[in-house]
Amino acid sequence: GAVVSQHPSRVICKSGTSVKIECRSLDFQATTMFWYRQFPKQSLMLMATSNEGSKATYEQGVEKDKFLINHASLTLSTLTVTSAHPEDSSFYICSAGRTGGTQYFGPGTRLLVL
Amino acid sequence: AQSVTQLDSHVSVSEGTPVLLRCNYSSSYSPSLFWYVQHPNKGLQLLLKYTSAATLVKGINGFEAEFKKSETSFHLTKPSAHMSDAAEYFCVVSDVRAAGNKLTFGGGTRVLVKP
Q: Which one of A7, A65, B54, B88 is at 20 to 30 Å from A54 when CA atoms are compared?
């Protein structure tokens, strides 16, 4: 299957700082990428749809000014958690879609805000 | 609108016995359906997908699922569980006409395999 990478895999930061997470599709071009958030023992919640060359589309209840998404190329999307607080601690997962609808998921990034 | 219900939040089986994970979906059109597996602190791996071809879909690691439109179900089965099957499993629906490229996830089923 297709390969999607995320970096970093784990990050610990102080409250009030910003954290950038990268999502790369390594062997195909993805015009659309998706960002999810997963709390412990829960399912994935879609945060936003990242569109190459245009603004991201955010799901209801997700603050676009807090979770900045940039999709500058067909293989890279970034999620920046601005002014992170402890309640932002979570597992963040990205995915990239191929033609036919199958999405391939990155390995996830564990964020811990102290 | 589209939605997915996984009927069991936890399933416990003995190694070597069959596994059944139940999933019901709701979609206004003709959906694509997926099963993904997630091991602890890992991303999601695609097990199999249904996209309006054969209703019985075979996936990786001996898993298969059957699409039953009349029952709006897409249950996942494996004839003989292995210890490495212990993980979280997600049933997912996608309907381009209903929701574009968005996926809708079920709540997940945690599988425990006893030796």
A: A7
